[in-house]
Specification:
The protein contains 18 helices and 13 strands. By secondary structure, the protein is of the alpha/beta class. The strands form 2 sheets. Strands 4, 5, 6, 7, 8, 9, 10, 11, 12 and 13 form a 10-stranded mixed beta sheet that branches. β6 (244-248), α12 (255-262) and β7 form a beta-alpha-beta unit. The radius of gyration is 21 Å and the shape is globular. The termini are far apart. Bound molecules: magnesium ion (MG). Residues 248, 250, 274-275, 301, 351 line the site of magnesium ion. Magnesium ion is lined by residues 248, 250, 274-275, 301, 351. It catalyses: L-fuconate = 2-dehydro-3-deoxy-L-fuconate + H2O. Its cofactor is Mg(2+). Residues 199-295 form the Mandelate racemase/muconate lactonizing enzyme C-terminal domain.
C-alpha cells in the first residue's frame, strides 16, 4: 500500500521587481513567488504530487506556513484514500472546523487548501499517466458532478442541471480531444502592457505579439488617465483594428471613478475591462457594466470562492470572467465555477502569468472545452512569457495558441535547482542580491 509520507513546503521567490515585470496600478514592485508544496509518497517509482500558490513577495512565508498547517490531513494516508476520492478529499480539507474559522473558504488558508487539492489532482493524473486536462475529460458526467461541493450553489445551479450540461458534452468528447490536440487553445498576451514599461517598450512588444500570432493583447491601466489614453491610442494605432485590446485596472478605482475613467477610453474599442474595482463588489461591477455598456466588464482572478462567482453571474455584473488555478479551492471549486459560467452563458478568459499559473490553468480551460462547453475560439487563456524555464513541463505556445500538454500531471513541478536557488532568503539568487545591495 502506497502512502503519503510527507507534505514538504518551499518559499520560492523571483526578484522580478528589478525589471518592473508584472507591474500594474496596484502592484508596482512584485517579486513573483510560489508557496510550493510537494506531496511525497513511498511509491518505489518516486511518485509525488506538486502544487503551488502564486504570491508576489512578502507574505509568501505566511502562505507557506498555511500549506504546512494542512500536514495532519494528508501525511500517513494511503494515496487511494485521496486520489480515488478527490471530491471527498476536497470537502475534508475545506471542512476542518478549526482551520475553516480562518475563512471560511477565502484568503490565505483557502489558497493553501487549493494548492494541496491541486497537488492531489497532480498525483492522481500522474498515477493515471494522463495530463490533467485529459484525466478530467475522461471522467464520466456523474464522476465530475461528484467532485463538486454544491453547498451554497443550488439556488443558481443544481447537481441535476450540472449533470445535464456534462451529459450534453459527452458524445462530442473524442472529437474535441482530437481538435484540441491539433489546434491548441487560443492565448492572449499581457507581456506588452505592464505599467512600468516605457511607450517604446510597450509598442515594440505589442508589434512582436502580433507577429507572434496573438489576436488579443492586454494593457495595464489606472494610474494616470492621460497616460492610459495615450498608451491605448498608441497601441491601437500600432496593432490596427483587427487585434483586440483589453485593459486591466487591477482593482484601482471606486465605482464612480471607473465610469468616468472609462468614457474617454471607449473610442479605443476595448475587448474588456478587467478588475475595475474591488473583487468583492458585485453591485459595483453591475453599476459600472450598465454605465459603460457595451464595453465588456470582467473580474475573477481575485474571486475568493464559488459563492462570489455565483453572485457576479446572478447579478448580471460581468460580461466575462477570469478563473485562477491557485486562488480558490483547487480543481474541484474551479470545476464548479466553470459549470456556473456555462450555465449562465458567460465566457471564461483564464487568468495566468505569475509563477506557474499558465502551466496550471491551461489544463482547466482545455478540460472545459472537452467536457463542458465545447467552446474555445470565442475565449483565450492569458499568457505572459516569464519564468516558464523553471518548470519541468512548461507551456508550449505556437502561433499564439497553447498546445495541449502531453506529459502526465498538472504541469506544476519545478526543477529542483530552480527551487533551491530561489529559496527565500537563503537561496543563491537572494544571497547574491543581498551582497549587491550591501555593496
Ligand atoms: Mg488581471
Amino acid at each position: 500500500m502506497v502512502k503519503i509520507t510527507a507534505l514538504d513546503t518551499f518559499d520560492v521567490r523571483f526578484p522580478t521587481s528589478l525589471d518592473h515585470d508584472g507591474s500594474d496600478a496596484m502592484n508596482p514592485d512584485p517579486d513573483y513567488s510560489a508557496a510550493y508544496v510537494v506531496l511525497r509518497t513511498d511509491s518505489p517509482d518516486g511518485l509525488s504530487g506538486y502544487g503551488l500558490v502564486f504570491t508576489i513577495g512578502r507574505g509568501n512565508d505566511v502562505q507557506t506556513a498555511a500549506l504546512a498547517a494542512l500536514e495532519h490531513m494528508v501525511v500517513g494516508r494511503p494515496i487511494e484514500d485521496i486520489v480515488d476520492r478527490l471530491g471527498d478529499f476536497a470537502r475534508e480539507l475545506n471542512g476542518d472546523s478549526q482551520l475553516r474559522w480562518l475563512g471560511p473558504e477565502k484568503g490565505v488558508m483557502h489558497m493553501a487548501i487549493g494548492a494541496v487539492i491541486n497537488a492531489a489532482w497532480d498525483l492522481a493524473s500522474r498515477r493515471a499517466r494522463k495530463p490533467l486536462w485529459r484525466f478530467i475529460a475522461d471522467m464520466t458526467p456523474e464522476q465530475l458532478v461528484g467532485q463538486i461541493d454544491f453547498r451554497y450553489l443550488t439556488d443558481a445551479l443544481s447537481p441535476a442541471q450540472a449533470l445535464a450540461i456534462l451529459r450534453e458534452a459527452e458524445p462530442h468528447k473524442q472529437a474535441r480531444i482530437a481538435q484540441l490536440e491539433t489546434e491548441g487553445y487560443p492565448a492572449y498576451t499581457t507581456s506588452p502592457g505592464w505599467l512600468g514599461y516605457s511607450d517604446e517598450k510597450m509598442l515594440r512588444l505589442a508589434r512582436q505579439a502580433v507577429q507572434d500570432g496573438f489576436r488579443t493583447i492586454k494593457l495595464k491601466v489606472g494610474l494616470r488617465l492621460e497616460d492610459d489614453i495615450r498608451r491605448c491610442r498608441l497601441a491601437r494605432a500600432t496593432v490596427g483594428p483587427d487585434i483586440a485590446i483589453a485593459v486591466d485596472a487591477n482593482q484601482r478605482w471606486d465605482v464612480t471613478t471607473a465610469i468616468e475613467w472609462l468614457k474617454p477610453l471607449e473610442s479605443v474599442g476595448l475587448a474588456w475591462v478587467e478588475e475595475p474595482t474591488s473583487p468583492d463588489d458585485v453591485l459595483g461591477h453591475a453599476a459600472i457594466r450598465r454605465a459603460v455598456a457595451p464595453t465588456p466588464i470582467s473580474t475573477g482572478e481575485h474571486g475568493q470562492n464559488r459563492v462570489m462567482f455565483k453572485q457576479f453571474l446572478q447579478a448580471g455584473a460581468v460580461d466575462l470572467i477570469q478563473i485562477d488555478a491557485a486562488r480558490v479551492g483547487g480543481v474541484n471549486e474551479n470545476l464548479a465555477i466553470l459549470l456556473l459560467a456555462a450555465h449562465f452563458g458567460v465566457r471564461v478568459f483564464p487568468h495566468a502569468g505569475g509563477v506557474g499559473l499558465c502551466e496550471l490553468v491551461q489544463h482547466l480551460a482545455m478540460a472545459d472545452f472537452v467536457a463542458i462547453t465545447g467552446k474555445k475560439e470565442d475565449r483565450a487563456i492569458e499568457y505572459v512569457d516569464h519564468l516558464h524555464e523553471h518548470f519541468v513541463d512548461p507551456v508550449r505556445i505556437v502561433r499564439g495558441r497553447y498546445m495541449a500538454p502531453t506529459a502526465p500531471g498538472f504541469s506544476a513541478q519545478m526543477h529542483p535547482d530552480s527551487v533551491s536557488d530561489h529559496l527565500f532568503p537563503d537561496g543563491l539568487v537572494w544571497r547574491e542580491l543581498s551582497l549587491t545591495v550591501d555593496d
